[in-house]
Amino acid sequence: MDNGVTSIDGSILEGGGQILRLSVSIASLLNIPIRIFNIRGRRSNPGLRAQHKTGLDLIHKMTPRSKLLGSEISSTEISFLPDQDHDNYHEDLTFSADTKTAGAITLLAQIALPKALFMVFMPNLEKFGVSPIPEISASYKGYFPRGGGCVDLQITQPLLTSINPVRMDDRVAKKMCNSARRLIERGFQPSVRIIEDVCHESHAQGNGSTITIVASSSNQCILGGSSLGSPKVRPEITGEEAAKDLLASILDFPKACVDPYIQDQLILFMALSKGNSRIRTCSPLTLHTQTAIKVVETLTSASFTITTENLDDRDYCVIECKGIGYQFK
């Protein structure tokens, strides 16, 4: 720490944009002045890209009287300095962000307020007692390289002041669903109930398709698999990839409560919660999860413990955290 400013090395572990997004989100919530250097240091094109700059500018607008220094394209160092004597916004406000180029809207949502990432993340977030759950809707989709998608994310000021700990085209669409269904039914005996929901888009930027598969177990574990299609890939292949993604989590680690992609998304909420959280997941932990724990422990007083649990001759990672009991002000 230098002059009250906490420094974060953006090249540690995962070494990408995740460190930037998570660090700035925590700094905004807890009013912690931070400096991030070596931004995206493990990438072939280090420094800020348009998407990262847009996310920084967005959370800067959302944090009253904060200062943001060094937020230029290709910059490898930024400082984010919240006003430590100023509380959060309490009135209804609307913020907008446009990367002006192709970028992931969900990652903009992640840095601005870590309360969105579609069907698998929202139910897991609800387990922490966050209510009402943020509403996210795509006005229209945009596919790489053209981009141009538009998403509305509506977040109502939560009814709670702290977070609870957790113990825990039509033909193309049909082809994707059918191929995914065949693989899933082959993997489960007896068969499981499968509900299909095909989304019809009135228009989109570029040509592409997506499929997301969500599995909900009898003990309320929620896991997901997804795949992004393109005109160059047969829709059957896209559907199979999503199914394989999901089945890898379920069949390889049947007693895991969260999939590898949700692991790191829950770390911040475990740290903010009031009490002790415990999550059993697959082993080993993803690099994103290890990075999230490192960043959160650097910026907060939350403490994490990782242990190995052997069940039915499979090793699982158990993540435990004593949260800081963050109070919304």
What this model shows, in words?
The chain folds into 3 domains: 6-113, UDP-n-acetylglucosamine1-carboxyvinyl-transferase, Chain; 170-252, RNA 3'-terminal phosphate cyclase, insert domain (Dihydrodipicolinate Reductase, domain 2, 2-Layer Sandwich); 260-322, Ribosomal Protein S8, Chain: A, domain 1. It is built from 8 helices and 12 strands. It has helices at residues 17-30, 50-62, 105-112, 118-126, 170-187, 235-252, 260-272, 287-299; strands at residues 6-9, 34-37, 67-69, 77-81, 135-142, 150-154, 204-205, 209-216, 222-229, 276-282, 303-311, 314-322. The chain has a 4-stranded mixed β-sheet, covered by helices on one side. Strands 6-5-7 form a 3-stranded mixed β-sheet, with no helix packed on it. Strands 10-12-11 form a 3-stranded antiparallel β-sheet, with helices on one face. The longest helix is centred in the middle third of the chain and has 18 residues, at 170-187. The radius of gyration is 20 Å and the shape is globular. It holds the Pfam family RTC. This is RNA 3'-terminal phosphate cyclase. GO terms for molecular function: RNA-3'-phosphate cyclase activity. Keywords: Ligase.
